[in-house]
Amino acid sequence: MHNTIRFILAGQVEEIDSCDPTLTVLEFLREQKGLTGTKEGCAEGDCGACTVVIGELHGDGGIRYRAVNSCIQFLPTLDGRQLVTIEDLSDVDSELHAVQQAMVDQHGSQCGFCTPGFVMSLFSMFHDRPEQGIARADINLGLAGNLCRCTGYAPIVRAAQQSLKAGRHDRFTANETRTAELLQSIQPVESLAMSQGARNFYAPRTVDELCGLLQDQPAAVMVAGATDAGLWVNKQMRVLETVIYLGSVAELQILEDDGVSLRIGAAVSYTDSIQTITSHYPAFLPLMERIGAAQVRNAGTVGGNIANGSPIGDMPPGLIALGARLALRASDGQRIIDLEDFFIRYGEQDLREGEFIEQIILPAARQDQVFATYKISKRIEQDISAVCGAFSLQIEAGNIVDARICFGGMAEIPRRASRCEAALRGRAWDQHSIDIAMLAMAEDYTPISDMRASAAYRLQVAQNLLQRFYLEHSATPYPVRLDRLPEQALTDG
Question: What would the pLDDT profile of 254-281 be if each residue is shown by its tens digit?
Answer without folding.
Answer: 999 998 999 999 999 999 999 999 999 9
